């Protein structure tokens, strides 16, 4: 018994000392990049796509000699797109020696990561988050994001509504935290250009949307926006809208366009006429090059998504920053190097799109034309850029 007490006390002391240990500093012999990947939560449908491409890009960098002659090691944790889990996940990645963290998770979790990136002085970069505040002030000194932000989504949707003469918008949304955060930013912007007549929400795992869609249609919208993380909810929404209101113009977020495995699961013709917010254009040769490379990794028939392109660009932007800083072990130098990245050609968006960071601009796209409206055809596959409206490649809204 005395030995047991001594052993117990030794364990308790060890645990106490471990709890008081200082954060692990980046390792000099190799470069550790952390990734917070939601692989089991509501954002898994898109986070795992980006996460897979992050892994492939790191492997490619290592095969080509690494960064500054050092190999890159990727360490991965999962916050399940639960913002309450994110702070401990980021700290765990920092404790494993990460020099930077890729946030392949939902916007709510990426937003929760911002405070931790500030307190730990570690660069975070989000390849899939859409909420402007993820990389916007306050407290964004070490926080960055790659996609065009939601305020610019609103600009593009509003341009499309005006082009079509639409006046009354109905919104059908899932109740996930990620979509709640997105609508919190998007809806106020949309209300400036169109009358939002109803917002109908349902559980992300619902099996029937007939009542929700019927209630939404009762408000007499002339256009509908589906806001979801994708997966079954998005398919159910599109199938139900197609059945109950086949002539109604439908728009969606990026999710449906970036989940090609789900298209064949839609009812016949259910996606016909749907326009989603894409980020890939057939006029961008860099997109074509990235897809050609991905097909050597993911299979000859792989259809690249915007999540792939933005994940690839996220890793390459970190690589460039480490090269500019000349080190990965000094967080202040690395962060300053991030803010010196200027007009890097993007792998997504229209051909003229470039990516830049400055001390006052932590959202990468230099133009709204990182966004591309894409239309579906009768065979439930995208036909290409929507001919009725596209955003121009100007800097309008790029600093929003």
Automatic annotation (TrEMBL):
Membrane spanning stretches: none
Stated name of the protein: ABC transporter substrate-binding protein
Lineage of the species this protein comes from: Bacteria, Bacillati, Actinomycetota, Actinomycetes, Mycobacteriales
Coiled-coil ranges (or none): none
The family this protein is said to belong to: Belongs to the leucine-binding protein family.
Superkingdom, taxonomy of origin: Bacteria
Domain Leucine-binding protein: 31-350
UniProt entry tagged with the keyword Signal: yes
Gene3D superfamilies noted in UniProt: 3.40.50.2300
Sorted UniProt keywords: Signal
Signal peptide: 1-21
